[in-house]
Amino acid sequence: MKTVIVLRHAKSDWGDMSLRDFDRGLNGRGDRAAAVMGRWAALNIAPPERIVASPAVRVVETLHRFAQAHGSCPEPQFDMRLYLASAPMIAEVIADTGGAADRLLIAGHSAGVEEFILACVPDDGRSALRDEVEIKFPTAALAVLDFDIGAWGDLAGDFAGRGRLRTFVRPRDLDPALGPDQR
Fold it and tell me: What are phi and psi of 90, to 5 degrees?
C-alpha cells in the first residue's frame, strides 16, 4: 500500500503585478491557511516520508509554513516538472521520485493536482469526497489517496482509476475565516 498526500499551494499574493507567476509568494490568508493545514495534518494523518514539490515561491512558502506547524516533515525535494504540471506529469514525477517511501506528499498547483486526484479515483458515484474535489479543490486543500501497489513505478502511465480517496480537507473546513470571500 502506498499513500500520496496531495497539497495545493496556499493563496498567493497578487499585490506586485510585476512579479512573474513563478515568483509570487503567499498573502496573509495563505500563510494562515498553510499553518492550519499543517497542524491538522500532524494530528490526523501519518507524516510523509518524502515531499516532492514545485519550486514556485508560493509552493515553497506553503511547505515552509505547513512544516513549521506540522513539526515532523522531511525536507522537500523540488522538481520543476511539478510547476503547473498535468495529471500525467504528476504521476510520472511520483513514479520517478517516490523511492522507498510509503507516504509521499506532492505539493503543486491547480488544475493539475485536482485533475490527478479525479483521474486516480474512479467516477463510479461511490465517493462523496471525489464529488467534492470535482466541485473545487481550493488553495491549501489537502487530499489523501491510497494505492494498492507495491512500488511507485506501478503508477507510471497507468494511474487512472487506481486510487482510493481517503481524505479531503479544505482550510475553511477547519477555520471558517479561511473560507471564500473572507479575509
Answer: -60, -45
**pLDDT tens digit string along 119-149?**
999 999 888 999 999 999 999 999 999 999 9
User: What is the edge-to-edge ordering of all strands in the sheet holding 50-53?
Assistant: 77-78, 50-53, 103-108, 2-8, 142-147, 163-169
Which class is 2-178 in CATH? alpha beta
Which DSSP symbol is given to 35? Answer: H
Q: What is the rounded CA–CA span in Å between residue 171 and residue 14?
A: 20
Residue ranges per structural domain of the chain? 2-178
Give the residue from 130, 124, 154, 128 showing the smallest Cα distance to 143: 130
The whole-angstrom separation of Cα 65 and Cα 34 is 6
